[in-house]
Amino acid sequence: MTSPRIILKAIRFKSLPVRLVCILFAVVVTYFSVKVFLWCFASSASINASVKEVGDLLVSISPADPQTHFARAAVYEKTFETDDLQIALREYETAAALAPNNYLLWLSLGSTYGRVGDNARAEAAFRRAKELAPNYSQVNWALGNFLLREGNDDEGYAELRKAVSGDSKYAASAASTALQFSDGDLDLAHSRLAGIPSFEVAFSVLLADQKELNKALEIWNKIEPQAKDDKYLDAYSRLRSLLIDQKRFTDAITLIGPAKETGPDEAAVGKISNPGFEGKIVAENPNIFDWRVFKGTYPQVAVTDAQKHSGNYSLIVVLSGSEFREFRGVSQTVAVRPGAAYQLKINYRSDVNSKVQFFWEVASAKDGKRISISAPLQPSLQWAISTVDFQVPGDIDGVDIRFLRGECIAAACSASGSFWFDDLELIQK
After folding, report:
1. Are 70 and 160 within one domain?
2. Are 230 and 328 members of one domain?
3. DSSP code for 377
4. 16 in any annotated domain
5. Total structural domains in the chain?
6. Which residues touch 249 (CB under 8 Å, ≥6 apart)?
7. 101 plus 45 within the same structural domain
């Protein structure tokens, strides 16, 4: 076999024709290397183009690259100046001509035609994008919105249905669009895209935000729960929060949501949650249907297994004799039936020595006004029962049950010892 060294020796580089060929080859390689570098530079830089001068430079460097024309168009479009918008339009047209099968370029071109009022060309551009990407939600969304603005409701909503069905990120915007184009007719707006779960979720929250809670609940409670869908879970929390804000406690607690474990401690209408304190008690609990401990550090409030009426735990409230600062109590909101009569029963023990009195109170969850209050709790080394009888006002469906200290001033508030509470019960008469 002939070695490479022998072959190289066979080539006479001192020969004029050979040298010319080598020089020509080097020039060609250099030329194309520079062209490729400039094209890559222009295409890459176009992604980050932010000022008009940069856009102009990129197009001059690589005039045959649709990406540079697209970048220049985007820069000029952002100025919102009439002349610049015309330049942007021409650049989008050039980009689409250079890459006629890129649906994104046709979408941008259609949008810009719409901005300058050339609706015929805008529709043609959107429909060209639809031909290229018939099942892309982005295309369906753009074409559908354009058709709605043109008064073509049937085809417009058909495109929006495809968009939302394909990508739930359009659901909230679709809900707003449907309501906007239905002149406030809630039933008509809902019918436009009814049956798409993500739309139903978004539309319910939109109505609730606009204080149309009855219609929001009507729609929401027909939606199949979607326990693994984050948007559904967020919407459920939002809707529940809005119901609580509007003091609609029964609706909030019966709101259909993701499947969850049920048991004797679960909150329900006319039922105390975690009545035996077997679950955790968390300070500043955001769930008003669980036990909440008020802000502060006095007295100490905790779950204990040292004393219990039943089960494994009870709630202990520890008072220190020298402390008489602001008292933090314990509270829970309970959904109840308007106008109904109830009795609250509290099992307790106490070795408290104090001149000040302690009570359990039932107050309106709507405005905080007292409805009824227990007799003062007396020391008892055995488990005793305290009761609060009350009638729910007809205009509310939620009450706050809470442990409070009576009125006192300075040293008169001093108390020492502990209270234990367990197995609270709400009985409808």
Report:
1. yes
2. no
3. P
4. no
5. 2
6. 243, 333, 334, 335, 336, 365, 397, 398
7. yes
CATH of the domain at 195: 1.25.40.10
What's the CA gap between 20 and 177, in Å, rounded?
Answer: 70
User: C-alpha dihedral over 180, 182, 184, 188, to 10 degrees?
Assistant: -130
Half-sphere exposure of 38 (CA within 13 A, CB side): 15
- In a structure prediction context, what are the per-residue pLDDT tens digits for the chain, which is 429 residues long? 445 444 434 445 455 554 544 445 444 444 444 444 444 544 444 444 457 777 677 777 878 888 888 888 788 888 878 888 899 899 889 989 999 999 999 999 999 999 999 999 999 999 999 999 999 999 999 999 999 999 999 999 999 999 999 999 999 999 999 999 999 899 999 999 999 999 999 999 999 999 999 999 999 999 988 878 899 999 999 999 999 999 999 999 999 988 654 555 678 999 999 999 998 887 766 688 999 988 888 899 999 999 999 999 999 999 987 766 788 889 999 999 999 999 999 999 999 999 899 999 999 999 999 999 999 999 999 999 999 999 999 999 999 999 999 998 888 888 999 999 999 999 999
